[in-house]
Write a structure and sequence with these properties.
The protein has one helix at 8-30; strands at residues 58-68, 72-85, 90-103, 110-114, 117-128, 145-149, 152-155, 172-183, 186-196, 204-214, 220-230, 241-252, 259-268, 281-290. With 300 residues, the protein is mostly beta strands.
Amino acid sequence: MLDPESSPETRRKGALKRIVPVLCLILAALSRFSPLALAQGGPPFRSDDPDTPENKNWEINTVLLGDRNPSAGFYETPNLDINYGLGNRIQLKYEVPLSIHETRDPSDHFAAGLGDSLLGVKLRFFSHHPESAKPDSNGKRESNFALSIYPQLLLSNPTRSVRRDIVDPGPQFLMPMEANGHVGPIRISGEVGCWFSNKSVPSSWIRGVIVGHEFKKKTEVDMELYDQDDTRATATELKTRESTLGIGFHTPLGKKGSVWLLGMVGRSLLPVTPTNGQPSWIASLGLQFVTSRKRRNSID
């Protein structure tokens, strides 16, 4: 009989209970030396936050992504992510990658092609502005707590990528909610949502939290806990899950802050097997181009 205390779910919860307090202690210690900024989601991380580009400003990310487990590898070389600020509370998004899928089995499958397109609209519907926050030159103040929704639609492009097993077939719909705020010196952003899929691809829950610290010269280091859990198995694939810990950074290239270097590395929090979907490693590296004075804002 299996020991219930040794089940994957029990080990995952135990790992999270050990890791989260350590992250909080590290960031609390760092806050004694320099002020913390709100941890920002989005590229290079898997989860997002409520922040948006300023009105009529662009945020364009070109990022190399990799996700490798013992049986397969998924890569985007690169992923092009284009965002536009429509007012201070709305962000429009279009994303498309050049995707690669390889497998380590008797077939040794390897194929590359255009990935699926992802379209989204982020709406920050709530922001809290402390009275102590100083207004900018336009009389607007940055919030210390915000909430958003970010519906996104994934569509297959009219290529052979689905038939060649490069990407999963669409349509698929993601409905998440994002939040950011702070508890004392600890700054946090988080996201929770669900992928609603089709009969060929299982739906899944997503959950992510990021804690971060901004050092001098606007360089930010963040840690992310992320979990994506299939709701069911399909006729051809087992139910899988990815529970990962990643460490990433943003740093400006040049004094104007219009170009940023992004990166992240991580791996599974659970033992990795050829069938459970847990990644041996994940990684991303790329550039971000922005036209506003800051990378992202919660300004109203």
